[in-house]
Amino acid sequence: MTTPAIDAALARRLVDTQFPQWAELPLRLHAPAGSDHVIYRLGEEFSVRLPRHAGAIKQARKEAEWLPRLAPHLPLAIPVPVEVGEPDFGYPWPWAVSRWLDGEVATADALSGSHEAAVVLAEFLTALHRFDAEKTEDLTGRPLSTRDTATRSAITKVGDTFDTTAMTELWDAALAAPEGNFPPVWFHGDFHTGNLLTTRGRLSAVIDFGELGTGDPACDLIIAFTLMSAETRGTFRAALDVDDATWTRGRGWALATGLNAYISYAAVNPRVAAQTTRQITQALVG
Question: pTM, whole model, 2 decimals?
Fold first, then answer.
């Protein structure tokens, strides 16, 4: 299915027609937008998020169902949806209006040395992973092993930039690390620096729950390698009480997702190149 051009006129028509109570609120494009959605700010209190591609079309309804249930249990703010819009005017997919969260996107430069931030993130993940609700089949996450072919291919492609032997050894170790007999837990699924907001220099919110699901909590350890230093990673790991096998799988997730983003975007986006280079090298450090 071809996605129509998403512009302010389309967003305005969708809002005004389906939610006329907000027809008088100003609508302006939010930049930078995410890779999955075009985002508009609606007045001062709301955001409008329209999926760019078919891979993101289930997110609006999933977040509307689960984020209001999660929010009271989490120590940081999350973007709770208030309405889900329907396809119209040639736009083919559900879209969402959510509460706006003020803040600046977190950066490693600002927070990598913050032991306070490391503890706050560990507390957030502890609360999320302990969230007690019935788990549904359609939210079951894919295991790390499903990334094997793509990751080994990526290791070969970036051999001139990163240490091929070290990457292969880490990947083999991550795949071999046992998951144990623990029940699946809820995870964020895309828990990296770009999905954290800060207010006055302190962590204030976690955004973008498009990959929310249940399964291995190791996927959320990516944050340790996108944001933290070796010292603050130690604080984070102790606060989260992570065993060796889970930590190794977390390093594998960081390697796999870092490589995927690097080969997809680094050549055309210097910011992604810098972030993913850090992620890969920190995952190799451990």
Answer: 0.92
